[in-house]
């Protein structure tokens, strides 16, 4: 539904911090399903951990937040400008169920629960296949959008 060139129009992130490769499904105002291909070439693997590479949990949450940002901008019918940014406002009930390793395809499913005065709350789940890798409730604040 959305390729990397289109995603780049919604996210200010760039390598090595762009963590969404493709949007597979989107219901504007409701949910998004995005994909992150996890490869051994990720810059964090040499240090996390050299003997058993595992994607850091905080980066799984960041990938979910980036998918949420795409959903939010598409829902608002706008794109970010040079002055706009989405910040984490809260992370609740984060749980990590399975390690994410090189070769995995991380499915990022985010549901918009509410949006009030620029602060949005989401239910987010990261999966590898049918297995849940991580879950959390995310709150994000949009700053600077004109």
Automatic annotation (TrEMBL):
The keyword Lyase applies. The keyword Lipid biosynthesis applies. Involved in unsaturated fatty acids biosynthesis. Catalyzes the dehydration of short chain beta-hydroxyacyl-ACPs and long chain saturated and unsaturated beta-hydroxyacyl-ACPs. It comes from the Bacteria. It comes from Tepidiphilus thermophilus. Its main location: cytoplasm. It is an enzyme of class 4 (lyase). Pfam families: FabA. This is 3-hydroxyacyl-[acyl-carrier-protein] dehydratase FabZ. Gene3D superfamilies: Hotdog Thioesterase. InterPro entries: FabA_FabZ, FabZ, HotDog_dom_sf. One of its GO terms (biological process) is lipid A biosynthetic process. It is found in: Cytoplasm. Its EC number is 4.2.1.59. HAMAP family: FabZ. GO terms for cellular component: cytoplasm; membrane. Belongs to the thioester dehydratase family. FabZ subfamily. Signal peptide: none annotated. Keywords: Cytoplasm, Lipid A biosynthesis, Lipid biosynthesis, Lipid metabolism, Lyase. It catalyses: a (3R)-hydroxyacyl-[ACP] = a (2E)-enoyl-[ACP] + H2O.
């Amino acid at each position: 539904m959305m390729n990397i060139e289109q995603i780049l129009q919604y996210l200010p992130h760039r390598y090595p911090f762009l963590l969404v490769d493709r949007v597979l499904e989107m219901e504007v105002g409701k949910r998004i399903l995005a994909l992150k291909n996890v490869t051994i070439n990720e810059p964090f693997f040499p240090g996390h951990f050299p003997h058993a590479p595992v994607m850091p949990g905080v980066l799984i949450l960041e990938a979910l937040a980036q998918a949420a940002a795409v959903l939010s901008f598409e829902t608002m019918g706008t794109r970010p400008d040079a002055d706009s940014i989405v910040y984490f406002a809260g992370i609740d009930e984060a749980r990590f169920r399975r390690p994410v390793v090189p070769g995995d395809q991380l499915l990022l499913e985010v549901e918009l629960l509410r949006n009030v005065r620029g602060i949005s709350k989401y239910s987010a789940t990261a999966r590898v296949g049918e297995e849940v890798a991580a879950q959390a409730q995310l709150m994000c604040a949009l700053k600077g959008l004109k």
